[in-house]
Amino acid sequence: MLTAQNKSQPRPPAFDDIVKPVVPHMQALGDFLDNQVEQFETDIRDLVRYSLQNQGKRLRPLLVFFGGWREGEVNPDLVRAAAVVELVHLATLIHDDILDDATLRHNSDTVSARYGSTAAVLVGDALFSQALVLAAEFPTVDVCRAVSLSTRRVCAGEIRQTFERGNAAFSLEEYFRVIDLKTAELFSVSSRLGASLAGYDEAFSEAAGKFSRHLGVAYQIFDDLADYLGDEEKIGKTLGTDLASGKFTLPMLVLFQRLPRGEQKLFLQRVRRGELNPSQLAGVMKDYAVIAEVSSSFERELAKADDVLAPFANLEPVPRLLNLSKFVLSQFERLAVSS
Amino acid sequence: MLTAQNKSQPRPPAFDDIVKPVVPHMQALGDFLDNQVEQFETDIRDLVRYSLQNQGKRLRPLLVFFGGWREGEVNPDLVRAAAVVELVHLATLIHDDILDDATLRHNSDTVSARYGSTAAVLVGDALFSQALVLAAEFPTVDVCRAVSLSTRRVCAGEIRQTFERGNAAFSLEEYFRVIDLKTAELFSVSSRLGASLAGYDEAFSEAAGKFSRHLGVAYQIFDDLADYLGDEEKIGKTLGTDLASGKFTLPMLVLFQRLPRGEQKLFLQRVRRGELNPSQLAGVMKDYAVIAEVSSSFERELAKADDVLAPFANLEPVPRLLNLSKFVLSQFERLAVSS
Questions:
Q1: Per residue in B149-177, is it b (16+ CB within 10 Å) or e — as a string?
Q2: Can you state the percent helix, strand and coil of chain A, rounding each to 5?
Q3: Coil, helix or strand for B329?
Q4: How far is residue A230's CA from residue A238's CA, in Å, rounded to a whole number?
Q5: Closest by alpha carbon to A244, among A219, A266, A221, A275?
Q6: How far apart are CA A96 and CA B93, in angstroms?
Q7: How far apart are CA B135 and CA B254, in angstroms?
Q8: Where are the transmembrane segments (chains A, B) (predicted)?
Q9: What is the per-residue pLDDT for A6?
Q10: Residue B238 — pLDDT band, cuts 50, 70, 90?
């Protein structure tokens, strides 16, 4: 369990420490993305500029840079690849925020809240197109293929999740399939591309991809738990949207399984009628030890992630990637332990 | 004027005659697209299958095949390129139908009417991704680059149009810029790719692209007029959506310019209040000779299209492409003359 681990392990690195070595890379990415605005047609530059202001943690670019890490080098190919995955991610976020009716993202109005859903659908499409324009600037079709395949899978995951809204009988197996597609896929392609563009061999590139796939699953579990336990102001986005839109994620699926059979139906009715707010639900989750089970799933994925890299311990990217998994762990712990 | 031309010119070829030589190619495309369904994740195949059932005229694939025409040959590269542009087109149609609240397309429920707008946003994204997956199967990045650039421009055109909704002061110049981006761009890339993939030289590929750009503008003018004058049952899609959504297209822009200054304000109010249905508007348009001016714009574009091909009259694709412009002309005439 998490609290036991906390005692025996050293303090995890803070996010600022993790990103310190990669500051010049992230700065280069920021400049690169700023310059992208001028690549778009004049008609839509303001909208694109607003869409690119999103100041997330840029985890996918971090995976590109760390997957292809070589000390002291800002490789322009990695900067471009990082821009590609970040643009794809921003496009999917913009479309997600329309579908979830979310109004807040990183403490700013979402694109759909600010410009309307019509413009938001289309600017998402435009950002995705531009990601592929950049992918086509590499000498071979590899980046185009990898990114478009991944994006198709991300969409498939999102659609599957949409179809299952309101379905409390959604199995855990199906839940893990959905998050593998919708989140882990793009994490995976990010570090795989980073490694291969930096000249690491196929075996390590594949391993970097697998590591990030597990990390992505773990991260999504964290994100799904945060939707119930998080602090909207700290996290900077609208929370409780999963419940509001009938998305049953891991915490709710586990809770539902643990409820006495006779109580499931009534509970589901109360949820559907919106009679339980997220903080009440968090209370019920504590009563049924839901967080402990969610924590186990989370830890299992992170352990798998770290194991994949064990044979490559001597390569430069490995300690960097492992730092990211430590960071995700520390985020999760802060959330789960404080609740 | 159109009626005068009708008397002095031979009967234009029927659509069936035009597509006769390309039947094996279109059949190969149909099979290719059918097989695409299995390429998508199992979770979304039914939705993809439904989305691909759209039985339009497949004008963009025709432009690919005719742009790269060589008698007696079904070139698999052209079939793949045709699938790429058709998938991009279907993706944009699906997104458009959400934004326009359209429920009918080719006499079937739109994807958004059938599966909801959430699934429609995402399946549009998935189709676009798959288009790029196919584009990445070519040995060089050329197809990826051309298609993603075009798609970005299509989106820019759509967004611009969205921002100008309800703006009756939208200039004709701006209107032509929007339709160049949102329609002519993909027409252009279709025949340009067809020509270059079939081994025609740069000069002809460029010309084929320019021809189709003008053809695309002409086609959009036809489509915009049909939204007012068309017969919903014959055309097989929801009409009158431009007016309903406040999109001012060429017929309305011309009409508005021709109204006496004192009447413009009242007229606009009546339009905004929905007091004029499309057939009443068609009557007003006739009173102000709007259709004659729209016809002139249409004819001017078609003439430019045909002129671009004049220096290449000895090449196999040219009579095929010219047949398409004759067909678009005949469609326009049927609409404008019958009204």
A1: bbbbbbbbbbbbbbbbeeebebeeebbbb
A2: 75, 0, 20
A3: helix
A4: 10
A5: A275
A6: 20
A7: 40
A8: none
A9: 47
A10: low
Residues A125 and B128 sit within 8 Å (Cβ to Cβ)? yes
DSSP character at residue B184: I
- Tell me the three state secondary structure of residue A259: coil
Q: How many CB atoms lie within 10 A of CB A304?
A: 16
Judged by CB atoms closer than 8 Å, whether chains meet at B144 and A159 is answered as: no
- Three-state secondary structure along A56-123? CCCHHHHHHHHHCCCCCCCCHHHHHHHHHHHHHHHHHHHHHHHHCCCCEECCEECHHHHHCHHHHHHH
Which of A89, A148, A151, A176 should we substitute to test contact with B (largest number of B Cβ atoms within 10 Å)?
Answer: A148
Q: CB distance from A82 to chain B under 8 Å?
A: no
Number of continuous H segments (helices) and E segments (strands) in chain A? 19, 2
Tokens of A71: 């000390």
- CB distance A155–B98 less than 8 Å? no
pLDDT beneath 50, residues of chain A: 1-7
Q: How many CB atoms lie within 10 A of CB A11?
A: 8
ipTM attached to this prediction: 0.89
**φ, ψ of residue B191 in degrees (nearest 5):** -75, -25
Query: What gap in Å lies between CA B271 and CA B281, rounded to an integer?
Result: 9
Domain carrying residue B165? 2-338
DSSP state of A181: I
Residues of B whose CB is below 8 A from A184: none
Other CB atoms closer than 10 Å to residue B264's CB: what's the count?
16
Asked if A130 contacts A262 with a C-beta cutoff of 8 angstroms, the reply is no
Tokens of B286: 């006739």
A126 touches chain B (CB under 8 A): yes
Cα separation values, A181 from A31, A185, A187, A217, B43, Å:
30, 5, 10, 9, 11
The count of structural domains within chain B is: 1
Does B158 lie at the interface with A, CB-CB under 8 angstroms? yes
Model pLDDT, residue A128? 96
Per the CB < 8 A criterion, the answer to whether A68 and A189 are in contact is: no
Q: Which two tokens stand for residue B156?
A: 């820019």
- pLDDT tens for B165-213 read 878 778 999 999 999 999 999 999 999 999 999 999 999 999 999 999 9
Read off the tokens for B186. Answer: 């993909």
**DSSP per-residue letters across B237-267:** S--SHHHHTT---HHHHHHHHHS-HHHHHHH
B77 min Cα distance to partner chain A (Å): 16
The count of other CB atoms within 10 Å of the CB of residue B128 is 28
CATH number of B187's domain = 1.10.600.10
